[in-house]
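Bumping with the actual sequence this time:
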Amino acid sequence: MAGRIEDYALIGDLETAALVARDGSVDWWCVPRFDSPACFAALLGDGRHGHWSLAPVGNRPCSRRSYRGDTLVLDTVWESVSGTVRVTDFMPPRQLTPRIVRVVEGIAGRVEMRGELRVRFNHGSVVPWTRAPDRRTVDWVAGPDATRLHCGPGAGEPVVTADRTTFAFPVTAGQRVAFVLGWHPSHTPAPTAPDVPAALDRTLGFWNEWAAGLRYHGPAHEAVIRSLITLKALTYEPTGGVIAAATTSLPETIGGLRNWDYRFCWLRDSTFTLSCLLRSGYRREALAWKDWLVRAVAGDPADLQPLYGVGGQRRLPETHADWLPGYEDSRPVRFGNAAVGQFQLDIYGEVLSTIYSAVRAGVAIDTHMWSLMAELLEYVGKHWQEPDEGIWEVRGPRRQFVHSKVMAWVAADRALRLARVAGLRGSVRRWQALRAELRAEVCAHGWSDEQQSFVQYYGGSRLDATALLIPRLGFLPVDDPRVLGTVRAMGRLEDGGFLRRYADTGNGHVHEVDGLGGAEGAFLACTFWYADALALTGRPAEARTAFERVLDVRNDVGLLSEEWDPATGRQLGNTPQALSHVALVNTAFTLDGTRSRARGAGRRSAVA
């Protein structure tokens, strides 16, 4: 059975990633890309669906674990009466094919180790053909996929059966035993065994050099750099696309059906991600993300999708994996995402805002990009009055979502700003009129006198945490009474100090807005948005409290999933979640800026 969601640490090679549990089991690995089928899928089932355990005999959770400095190299330590052992897990940055390297090192005494490896291709559904060409090598092959395990000196001879491969060996102080598992296309020769010490040095060097580029020296520095490393690990290096999470179908409530595939790139996250990378000093990654976005959205604006594959691919059909029981019996297990076919008005604003942010960072606008922006805004001008599925990708009826209209305003606003920067006048008057009309309508129909807040959709009374973004987006100033009222009202979405996206039914009935049954946890990114809004509206102490509350629920290696359940004290949803970590970084910058302004004001007051 899989561990708790917060039990998992991430390793990766910038093209795919694996999850390692506290008991030493690799329970999730998609190859060769993030969005490829998994060959280890125990995370969504059990050992029969593929995993690789490596731990002292007894298979208990580790004593402690940590990343080695500011890297993605994971050290897991077990201490016992007989001795102490450390397992170091990492994936070298991709050169040819993906590899997981595991090094067992004796620290003290003598420890008996045991390992079990069960490869199951195509998301745990295919039992491959297995053979051992020699005493230190095991091969698995089925269809297009093949893997090879290299066992280093001291590992003993693996016991190979059709179902699984096991190995048992002792390790004493100072002894190191290495294992390397690599994937390759079945029609190509298996890669040779790497020089493990050199691969470890190269991996450490890569991450240390990358982390040294951080331009942030404020509070929660360790949490910020770990979040940025996680974001880098979720980036598909060949294209620059950033996936939402490394997993699929981890539930938003245990046993529930809100289980989605997040191994793709969402446009809704684009502005937040670009801002996070630019302000942190990672310009190359920010511009690679912008370039991915521009390539992905090329074409008819009517065909714009909420999400794309890591290569920009558009067809991501949603299917159910009936052979997998799901994480703690949370069904269905989904691969692909039907939201790809939804109409989400907000993404047009996201694209234009992302391009505007890139231009502010010094990126030149070419004729092609300007044409793209003009076409996108032309489409918004014709369709902004239509209902949509909104940022939360509801599977109920389309509605006039307030956030979607605000983002349509953002599209017009950023296009006007871009026109000024580029010296292009074109349709400026028409865009100004569109911007004014959108603001007037949102203020007239999206505001509730009863709630003293902006609400989720026109004519409704439900609150929605996306309203917290209104001042950040520039739709209204932070001191506007409607902004202040909205921030105060959002406290009603709190659950144990964390913010929900919107109120759920709480009783298992189908939600009137999202069309789904069951509940969900508190949304961690929304809690960071709340902290941002509190800081921007003059409540810095409350903002820091909200921020630190989320920091406290990171797992032992600093990772956050999508949601948190205050009742059970568990992380929920796919993990690690890019938006949660992007929001953490952006909120840290907000709080640091608020603190700096307060110090400056204090100094000026003292001088006066």
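The tokens above came from a reply further down the thread. The first helix runs from residue 121 to 124.
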